[in-house]
Design a protein that fits this description.
The structure holds two protein chains of two kinds.
Chain A lengths: L2 E5 L2 E5 L4 E8 L5 E7 L5 E7 L5 E3 L5 E5 L4 E6 L8 E8 L10 E2 L3 E6 L1
Parallel strand pairs in A: 2-11
Antiparallel strand pairs in A: 1-3, 3-8, 4-5, 4-9, 6-7, 7-8, 9-10, 9-11
Chain B lengths: L3 E4 L2 E4 L5 E7 L5 E8 L3 E10 L2 E4 L6 E3 L9 E3 L8 E8 L9 E2 L3 E5 L1
Parallel strand pairs in B: 2-11
Antiparallel strand pairs in B: 1-3, 3-8, 4-5, 4-9, 5-6, 7-8, 9-10, 9-11
Classes of the chains: A mainly beta, B mainly beta.
Chain lengths: ~120, ~110
């Protein structure tokens, strides 16, 4: 079974500052990792995903994440925060469970607050 | 435009009533999923379906039922047996059930039971 831990239920940064949202995973098999964003009362939108290959993954809206197997981490970053980045961010993991894929396992989410 | 539609956006029911949430996709995806979202809890998988006429329980299936009679449709029924049904419900789909496939989400239905 796999699990995801997102450190910090709320993260506040100033506009223009670096955004860092932390995600650690636990999986007994090679994981596939995703970051999603959710705006209030809306569904989730995929920001980026790691499957295989390059460990630094670039996504939409200037976000990127780096897969670090030794640290079991997949932290999300953005060099310069914008007011429109204020949202809920979810890290998720997918892994084979013997019978095939059975949905994503999500972290509890991090609410990103952007201070003007 | 291709996508996932969920209706209605907001739904109100009295305790003891069954209620069915609609989910339709025109992405020609094989797999469909239902998640429940509660504040501070992330998303939890209720049911998923890999093909028509087949579905599997997720982590919190008790008190819920689903059907998959058509590829495009995956309705969720919240029964009176669900002890705490008030939540935000999200439907998703993916091309297949391979672990590398991302899921596409609908806009969600907020269910309030009083």
């Amino acid at each position: 079974a796999q699990s995801v831990t997102q450190l910090g239920s709320h993260v506040s940064v100033s506009e223009g500052a670096l955004v860092l949202l932390r995600c650690n995973y636990s999986s007994s098999v090679p994981p596939y990792l995703f970051w999603y964003v959710q705006y209030p009362n809306q569904g989730l939108q995929l920001l980026l995903k790691y499957t295989t290959g390059a460990t630094l993954v670039k996504g939409i809206n200037g976000f990127e994440a780096e897969f670090k197997k030794s640290e079991t981490s997949f932290h999300l970053t953005k060099p310069s925060a914008h007011m429109s980045d204020a949202a809920e961010y979810f890290c998720a993991v997918s892994a084979y469970s013997g019978g095939g894929a059975d949905g994503l396992t999500f972290g509890k989410g991090t609410h990103l607050i952007i201070q003007p | 435009d291709g996508g996932i539609t969920q209706s209605p956006k907001y739904l109100f029911r009295k305790e003891g009533q069954n209620v069915t949430l609609s989910c339709e996709q025109n992405l020609n995806h094989d797999a469909m999923y239902w998640y429940r979202q509660d504040p501070g809890q992330g998303l939890r998988l209720i049911y998923y379906s890999q093909i028509v006429n087949d579905f599997q329980k997720g982590d919190i299936a008790e008190g819920y039922s689903v059907s998959r009679e058509k590829k495009e449709s995956f309705p969720l029924t919240v029964t009176s047996a669900q002890k705490n049904p008030t939540a935000f419900y999200l439907c998703a789909s993916s091309v297949g059930t391979g672990v590398t496939y991302e899921q596409y989400f609908g806009p969600g239905t907020r269910l309030t039971v009083t």
